[in-house]
Specification:
Layout (H helix, E strand, L loop, with lengths): L1 E9 L8 E8 L2 E7 L11 E4 L3 E5 L1 E6 L11 H4 L2 H17 L2 E6 L7 H10 L7 E3 L1 E6 L21 E3 L3 H14 L3 E5 L20 H13 L3 E6 L2 H10 L3 E4 L5 H9 L5 E3 L3 H9 L9 H23 L3 E2 L18 H8 L5 H8 L1 H6 L17 E5 L15 E6 L2 E5 L15
Parallel strand pairs: 1-4, 1-5, 6-7, 7-8, 9-10, 9-11, 11-12, 12-13, 13-14, 14-15
Antiparallel strand pairs: 1-2, 2-3, 5-16, 16-17, 17-18
The structure holds zinc ion.
Zinc ion (ZN) binds next to loops.
Length: about 425
């Protein structure tokens, strides 16, 4: 039995313009894609869904995803929750994101060692519905940097923290090997400082690890064909990442001209994801959440958004793959589930056309997932990872944030969400009545 989505506006994410036509799904894959006027053989068992007024596009990839960060108000919240509860929260977030149209999640770190891995494996074994996942471990970070919550008098056990603190190449090697033992797909390393979270003393222009430490992680990852993703805001950090062959560089706002030249040179092997959703939401909502920001703090956040906007606009013009995904869940102002808001930022701030933003989130997302040629496009033979929308996101990219207008989500040919717009009432020709 096939399912035929007929009369749909099709955004195939190949780079071609949207067109009207039919997408047929057989089992887990797309069996045919034809334009208006073309015909597809329909057998009596098939289901035909009239998609007049609807758009069909590939499922989205979240390129900077933290399913174990549950709308935190402090970093300690990710520590306090016990692993059993934590895994269930993460699974629930993964399922929620699938319903939002994210058929693939690329993790940017797990708040405890095996939370991502356990969720990925349970989904892959068919125990639960959920998106495709590339799982990460904890963030590997030097002492006195992002996520190091210890001080001289207080130490948290290694396994409850969202970072593993390491100093020196040997400790980085060990942490990377332990992450590999845990079964991760991606090793996360904090290469730079960050905006001031009150517990660290390295700002976002500072590169906090040595090249030898990053090289030690790369050696482990390359041998095991794992990917490395870095928290990296500083310019010298970006250069170090490109030199060492890091595949995914997060943030990168301060990349100078030389760093951008290097990224452009390496554009076939590197991805950049600015994770702008978090600072933008903090700026917008700091009063609503009573963060008590000073005028200086507000000014510094505004400047951060301007800096990342300038850099990402330039990288996009240079043809570097810049992907949406914005630290949703990592802070209460930026809740899990709003993730498609990143595409709006790409269009409004970074100079992406709506089509460019969709291609970044779909076709290039599949490249990030190492599933190019398998998913990320509406193409015969590809996995049927699909989103159906009431309306056209090329007219208004915010449509992807509207749960009422996301009328269907399919992963591998199975509906994860099927709204009333895809019901029998809309579909008089269902089951060759
Ligand atoms: Zn993050």
């Amino acid at each position: 039995m096939r399912t035929h989505f007929s009369n749909a506006t099709i955004i195939d994410a190949s780079g071609a313009a949207a067109f009207k036509g039919t997408v047929s799904v057989d089992g887990e894959r797309i069996a045919a894609v034809v334009g208006a006027g073309g015909s597809i053989p329909v057998s009596p068992d098939d289901e035909t869904i009239d998609c007049e007024g609807l758009t069909i596009m590939p499922g989205l990839t979240e390129a900077h995803c933290h399913i174990s960060f549950n709308n935190l108000t402090s970093m300690y919240q990710a520590v306090e929750i016990q692993p059993e509860d934590h895994s269930l929260v993460a699974l629930s977030n993964a399922q929620m994101l699938l319903g939002c149209g994210f058929t693939s999640l690329f993790s940017a770190a797990s708040a405890k060692p095996r939370v991502d891995v356990a969720v990925r494996d349970a989904i892959n074994r068919g125990l639960f519905a959920g998106p495709r996942m590339r799982a990460a471990g904890q963030e590997i970070s030097p002492s006195g940097n992002l996520g190091d919550l210890d001080n001289n008098y207080l130490t948290f056990p290694r396994n409850v923290r969202f970072t593993v603190t390491c100093d020196g190449a040997d400790e980085f090697t060990k942490a990377a090997r332990l992450a590999a033992r845990d079964g991760v797909d991606t090793i996360k390393v904090n290469v730079s400082g960050d905006r001031d979270w009150g517990h660290m003393h390295a700002d976002d222009t500072v590169t906090v690890i040595s090249e030898r430490e990053l090289a030690a992680v790369m050696e482990v990852a390359n041998a095991r064909r794992l990917m490395v993703a870095t928290h990296c805001t500083s310019s010298s950090g970006v250069k170090m990442c490109v030199r060492q062959g890091v595949q995914v560089i997060y943030h990168a706002p301060h990349a100078d001209t030389e760093a951008r030249d290097m990224l452009e040179e390496a554009k076939d092997r590197v991805f950049v994801a600015p994770a702008a959703g978090l600072p933008i939401s903090m700026l917008k909502r700091h009063r609503e959440f009573d963060l008590k920001w000073s005028a200086a703090k507000i000014a510094s956040m505004e400047s951060e958004v301007e800096t990342v906007t300038r850099c990402m606009s330039d990288l996009h013009k240079r043809g570097v793959r810049v992907l949406p995904g914005g630290d949703y869940g990592a802070f209460i102002t930026n809740p899990m589930g709003e993730n498609a808001r990143d595409l709006e930022h790409f269009v409004n701030l970074f100079g992406f056309s709506p089509m460019d933003a969709i291609i970044a989130a779909t076709r290039q997302g599949a490249e990030l997932m190492r599933m190019e040629g398998e998913t990320g496009q509406i193409k015969t033979g590809f996995l049927a990872d699909l989103v159906l929308l009431d309306g056209n996101p090329l007219d208004d990219i915010r449509l992807l944030q509207d749960q009422q207008r996301i009328v269907g989500v399919m992963k591998g040919g199975r509906f994860a969400k099927r709204g009333s717009a895809l019901s029998q009432a809309r579909n008089p020709r269902r089951k060759a009545a």
